[in-house]
Write a structure and sequence with these properties.
The protein is an alpha/beta fold. The chain has 13 helices and ten strands. The relative contact order is 0.18.
Length: 341
């Protein structure tokens, strides 16, 4: 009997460990539909997918593994959210705008080092940076050079608080500099661009609200933000420039999760065709192949990635270091704060 109990305990432990891993293994419950024990999960995420996650949670709760799972949700600027978790904000799952906000938590042992070992590299959605314009495009905005013309007001968030704003900056720099080959042209462009930015909000969603309120002629934003605005009755158009960057958004279970099995089940659900279709309907480009609706997204003529610019470690040091970064000089000339909140 004692041997039987030990064997059963070992088997249970093995299942639990497999469920908690950051790689591609799945819990048994996540694949066979078995209900999991009741739990409340805390989701800490960047601001733009708030509505999508509301729908995803409901869809997950309609499955066997999600039947007894409830959620608390926190949304804000990606960098702010990452730092909040670093400073003690409880989280079972984290979803950020860009990979460095996840890397920060890996360094603090708050997210497993193998969080991106999945085939999808832990990136739950993709998007591209677009130019959102007023209905009918009265300023005839079609390309990056139009944003630095006199009299054109550009809305973008503060890149020292917003992950979305960093994507905007690197899309602009990469497009004008030919992916870094003409560095001076790219840096000069950033200086000219930000002179046309009248206000820098803390997050991408706040910038959308500012633009919706009537401020500015063009908004730098994720494609999904433009689609979100149109779906909610805003009279906006958007232009996908020929040269733009592929946005990749990471998600992971935290190492401090009190309910790692349930958290892993929700993470697995996010990569299913059902969940990816919900993301697609919200304007995000799916990262799972074969999802219905994927073909509606147009591929820009010259789509580049952050890797083409050296990767986030290089990019953050060069552009966003709070003491020496390129954007520090740009912002200081305008009197804008470069302090991470």
């Amino acid at each position: 009997m004692r041997k039987l109990v030990l064997t059963a305990s070992a088997a249970l432990l093995a299942i639990t460990l497999a469920a908690c891993g950051g790689g591609s293994s799945k819990t048994a419950a996540a694949t066979d539909g078995t209900a999991l024990p009741a739990a409340q999960l805390s989701l800490v995420a960047y601001s733009t997918p708030q509505e999508a996650y509301g729908k995803l949670i409901k869809a997950f709760q309609a499955t066997g593994p999600g039947k007894n799972v409830t959620f608390t949700e926190s949304y804000g600027a990606s960098g702010d959210q990452s730092r909040a978790v670093e400073n003690g904000l409880a989280a079972d799952l984290v979803a950020f705008s860009l990979e460095p906000d996840m890397t920060r938590l890996v360094k603090d042992n708050l997210v497993a080092a193998d969080w991106n070992a999945r085939p999808d590299k832990g990136m739950v959605t993709d998007s591209v940076v677009v130019l959102v314009v007023r209905k009918g495009n009265p300023k005839h905005i079609t390309q990056w050079s139009d944003l630095t013309k006199p009299g054109v007001q550009v809305i973008t968030a503060n890149p020292f608080t917003s992950g979305g704003a960093r994507w905007n900056v690197m899309a602009a720099y990469g497009a004008v500099s030919a992916k870094g080959a003409q560095d001076k042209a790219g840096v000069d462009y950033l200086n000219a661009l930000f002179k046309n930015v009248p206000v820098q909000d803390d997050s991408a969603r706040q910038s959308l609200q500012t633009f919706a309120g009537g401020k500015g002629d063009v908004l730098l934003a994720y494609e999904n933000e433009a689609i979100f605005a149109q779906q909610h009755g805003q009279s906006f158009d958007y232009v996908i420039p020929d040269q733009t960057i592929l946005i990749e958004n990471p998600v992971a279970v935290t190492s401090k999760s009190k309910n790692p099995v349930q958290a892993k089940a929700f993470l697995d659900f996010l990569f299913t065709p059902t969940a990816q279709r919900i993301f697609a309907d919200a304007g995000y480009r799916p990262t799972t192949a074969g999802v219905k609706g994927s073909s509606t997204f147009k591929t820009p003529a010259q789509l580049f990635t952050i890797a083409d610019l050296g990767g986030w470690t290089t990019v953050n040091k060069r552009f966003f270091d709070p003491q020496t970064g390129v954007l520090v000089d740009v912002e200081r000339q305008l009197g804008v704060s470069t302090v991470k909140k």
